[in-house]
Amino acid sequence: KIRGHKTWNELLNRIQVEGGTDEQMKTFYSCLFRANLFSRKFYERKANGEPYYYSPYDGKVYDGYMYTDNGFWDTFRSQFPLTNILHPTMQGRYMNALLAAQEQCGWLPSWSAPGETGGMLGNHSISLLADAWAKGIRTFDPEKALKAYAHEAMNKGPWGGANGRGFWKEYFELGYVPYPESMGSSAQTMEYAYDDFCGYQLAKMTGNKHYQEVFARQMYNYKNVFDPSIGFMRGKGVDGKWQEPFDPLEWGGPFCEGNAWHYTWSVFHDPQGLIDLMGGKDGFNQMMDSVFILPPVFDDSYYGGVIHEIREMQIMNMGNYAHGNQPIQHMLYMYNYSGQPWKAQHWIREVMDKLYTPAPDGYCGDEDNGQTSAWYVFSAMGFYPVCPGTDEYILGTPYFKQMKLHLENGKTVTISAPNNGDDKRYISSMTLNGKDHTKNYVTHEDLMNGASITFKMDSKPNEQRGTKETDFPYSFSNEFKKKK
Ligand code: CA
């Protein structure tokens, strides 16, 4: 009991918060606690202190570290990125354990509990690996990781939807996963395109030309399931015909636990590409705004009844914004790519105030291995990792007057917003280490060097700050535009 108390107390003190109400402090520390409950350590110590484990994948005993009980479809988004900041040593061990698990079971884990289940969709181990590398973790062999991922991308797995790719040939030949041939097809297409970007990033960062070329070909595939005539991602058949009938309010079908209003934003690596598809910033912003203007209406016919994710959206009553499930959780931050960062600030504060409380019903959906909590912890800092695999954290709005992050390397990140308050959710200006900061993001390096970030808050939006393209965060399309 004493050891447990000490461990948690040390951990919770890694982030020190000041200037919130009792309720806000309780919510924050509950979220910090939950964001750190998973993954589970799955190893023991020998008499000499060295780690060893029983593999849940092949039943043999190995030397080294192993971790399990995590579904990456949820947690690649911000729970693992938070771990990269708070626990880089553990993350380094974990990334090696992923590759060891791949050797033991033949596939990269996607939903281990404790052995592999293949639950949900995507091949998001590569997001974890690329993000770890982008954040300076060098404990694993990147070529081994890329080979394991290539095997994932070009084979059908034995379990659920997230081991290998059931329709990998179609994805390569057509450029998308077809519907109704595959359920969840357009969600898969978007997530594979992002995962391929992560493969590309890891290859690029480690000078691996071969895999850089292999994965670069697929990163725009999300465009193949966007129907410009209606402005949504949509299902598309093997014959190239759009799904009929189509209702963007319908949950499931070519999506998974969400509808087109939720999934259309799943272009983490290329928001600019999505903005272009929507006819530019105005069209994009209008679609973003519409998520909230729309009432919480839905079509549950695919599921034959109201699944809990639908009910949560309805009860939370924030239009069609379904924060209780993962696909849309990064979406608010996308106003930073389209010249209206104050709208991100407005809605993030709404979500923090209304959808999280310290009461027993204080979460608006499943906790999902700490993902929904990690969203809150990041958002309270004032930024969020929209695209794991890059080193950028995209601005939101700080929640407290002051926050101190004590890093494993001994450095401290101080986030101050002295005039912050319930009536002051908008950033009027900010400084990074005393210098005016106009960009809509900070980098991992900024944080790891120890940083002093100061926000000046206001009750009215500053509609000038962060509106120039040079202030926008990373989009893959821009990387290629720059090259031209
Ligand atoms: Ca979920």
Report on this structure.
With 484 residues, this protein is an alpha+beta fold. Helices cover 38% and strands 13% of the residues. It contains 18 helices and 18 strands. It has helices at residues 2-12, 22-35, 72-75, 79-86, 88-105, 125-134, 142-153, 168-174, 185-205, 209-216, 260-263, 271-277, 281-293, 308-316, 341-354, 371-381, 444-448, 476-483; strands at 15-18, 40-41, 44-45, 51-54, 61-63, 67-68, 70-71, 111-112, 226-227, 232-233, 383-384, 392-395, 402-406, 412-416, 426-432, 435-436, 441-443, 451-458. A hairpin with a 6-residue loop joins strand 4 and strand 5. Helix 2 crosses helix 16, helix 6 (125-134) runs antiparallel to helix 7 and helix 6 (125-134) packs parallel to helix 9 (185-205). The longest helix is centred in the middle third of the chain and has 21 residues, at 185-205. The radius of gyration is 22 Å and the shape is globular. The model has no long low-confidence stretch (mean pLDDT 97). The structure holds calcium ion (CA). Calcium ion (CA) is lined by residues 74, 325-326, 366, 368. Calcium ion is lined by residues 74, 325-326, 366, 368.
